[in-house]
Amino acid sequence: MPIAIAAALLGSSAQATASNADDAKMNAFIDDLMQKMTVEERIGQLNLSVTGILTGTEANTDVTKKIAEGKVGGVLGLSGSEQVRIAQKIAVEQSRLKIPLIFGLDVIHGYKTTFPIPLALACSWDIPAIEEAARIAAREASRDGVCWTYSPMVDISHDARWGRVAEGAGEDPFLGSRIAEALVRGYQGDFSSDANIMACVKHFACYGAPEGGRDYHMADMSLWRMYNEYLPPYKAAVDAGAGSIMASFNGLNGIPSHGNRWLLTDLLRGQWGFNGFVVADYCGVREMVTHGLGDDQQVGIRAITAGLDMDMVSEVYLNTLKKSLDEGRISINDINKACRRILVAKYRLGLFDDPYRFCHSADEVSRELYSDANRAAARRIAGETLVLLKNEGNLLPLKREGKIALIGPLADTGANMPGTWSVATALNDCRTLRDGFEKALAGKATLLYAKGCNLYDDPQLEANGTVFGREMRDPRSAEELERKALKIAKKADVIVAALGEASEMSGESASRTRLELPESQRRLLTKLLALGKPVVMLNFSGRPVVLDWENRNVPAILQVWFAGTEAADAIPDVVFGDVVPSGKLTMSFPRNDGQVPICYNTYNTGRPNKKEGGYFDKFTTGYLDTSIYPLFPFGYGLSYTTFEYSPVKLSASSMNYDGTITASVTVTNTGNYDADEVVQMYIHDVYRSVLPPLKELKGFKRISLKKGESRKVEFTIDVELLKFYDAQLHHVAEPGEFEVMVGPNSTDLSIAKFTLNR
């Protein structure tokens, strides 16, 4: 045996032995601890309380009393190293068995340094950068007492009406799986460092498919569709070692997820081998009462026997499980299994070795949080997430010269820049787009500014969509706001319109039925265009929106999402060409509301639409009044340069089950800018025993090319890449013909074919 191979095998064996020894040590410790615990103390470990009220050395009497009595296993919503230390000290000094608490927080797209919202991050298609963002978020949060994040959200969604698309990776299970893995790795590492925190994958399961796009609503779908389209990112996160899973608010196929034994035990633990713990979403156990499944005791029984380990906030477990045990309606084993899983998580985080492991000194916290290095990373990554949707006449990038008018309701509001779920962000300190433009243009061009309009004409709709507690509404009349804006715009050489959604118009409890630009903003934009000057639209949103009118009338459109705490600099970086846009959409942008839900990886019918552009064709699938295709497809995004793709070539025309085929294209930067490009590979299984999607993303590579440079890009195809779940839910690859498609998005593709042999 070669020395290198022998050494590798010995190393692997040594690692396995060490891992087994560590597991044995952990199990012995937890066995001993649980023997000492009363039933009430075991149930207490299953209780996740919420508090943000610790001050100085004093704390809320009710919460701290329960912690001291061993009735709390973890705390939600508490951060700040000293605050966490106070609560942890009560647990390890006043409770009988001195079991430390676990502290969780919604660290969704950063901590103090906030990165772009997850949907925007996904549009970078930059897996190392996404992992880096999670690692920085974990490092900041862990300095400040937090050891558990309720992220990543890996829900697949085809419905832009649902506001929580802002928190996910979009519509594709392959890309969503790669991003899920990266986020788990970034947060958790291998738990060897106090800069690692535990990930919590959510929302299990199919939360992204609510009826009507209404948040919290039920999802109903076949298992075949669930396994092929919705479950892969959850499984990828589990396989990456995620320490915890969060149940989803919705009912799934008639059963609320918090009480779904098939979902939480048979599938998650039985089929996938998940060995972490499952936590409820906020009051999710008690909400089963509202669903109609019984009273507190009944839903508590339902949840614990389904495999839900930790009850978030509702205290149903704390108040009913002992009674249910005494009545013989649950077993002590139900409680023991859940308790053990919580204790294992705390052990893996190192809390039994050092309960204050994540409570660092004020100096260390100050050095890490919102540091120059972290902010630089956030600015760089934000620049990769912006998507250039249109650039007629190469209007962008703008030159730093003359007079530039910045107009719109989102041009001068810092609190909206980071986006929804920026829990730890100092929103009052966030710089505005106006600030960023002034900095970018200092001494080179004149910046003119006017608000132009409010978000909505209707003040109630505006209040619904603004950051909690922050008034954005301008008291001036619509006519006065427009008049000033037009006066300013007439003086300018070019107009930049900052329009779209405010941050809370997407995210949780932010479903919308109309995805068009609000009337107040469309009216302003129409009048700006009528001046005959060049207009660039910066579209803020946390979801795909309807931009059909804008695409027909505005010369340049840049989708800027909500790009985090460094958005004020990252957006001008792209607008003025310091950064070349490279983002690619991960959700299709519909032409109108009636197309929603919409996605690229749809299925053929027996009567496919063959009309050019997908417009009305009698007795085929389609609409009377519009195309079946989106306005901007999945994977779409322009650049300031141009790329030329050679036809895709395959290394062979057939492949056996144990073989591989290489697909390759040559990509050339034919423009005038050095730039990045995301090369995408799709596969179509021509014939299957069940419906095959028209195309499925199966590979992508982000490459950097200097102007004039060419590069050969290769993708390896093996049988695992061709597998799907059949009607019996077997994971199979069936022999037959396959089409391989490579290009810059899901529409503009060259095709080659091969055959898979038995």
Textual characterization of the structure:
- The protein contains 22 helices and 27 strands.
- It is α/β, with parallel strands linked by helices and 758 residues long.
- The strands form 7 sheets. The chain has a 6-stranded mixed β-sheet with strand order 11-16-15-14-12-13, with helices on both faces. It has a 5-stranded parallel β-sheet with strand order 4-3-2-1-10.
- A hairpin with a 2-residue loop joins β7 and β8.
- α12 (296-306) packs across α13 (316-326) and α16 packs across α22.
- The two termini are 33 Å apart.
- Residues 1-11 have low confidence and may be disordered.
Question: Gist?
Answer:
The chain has 758 residues and is of the alpha/beta class.
Keywords summarizing the entry:
758 residues; 6-stranded mixed β-sheet; globular; 32% helix; 17% strand; 22 helices; 5-stranded parallel β-sheet
The largest sheet has its strands arranged as: 11-16-15-14-12-13
> How many angstroms separate the termini?
33 Å
Radius of gyration: 27 Å
Q: Please estimate the helix content.
A: 25-40%
DSSP strand content = 15-25%
Whole-number mean pLDDT: 95
User: What's the number of extended β-strand segments?
Assistant: 27
Approximate shape: globular
Largest sheet: 6 strands, mixed
Q: How many helices? A: 22
What is the structural class?
alpha/beta
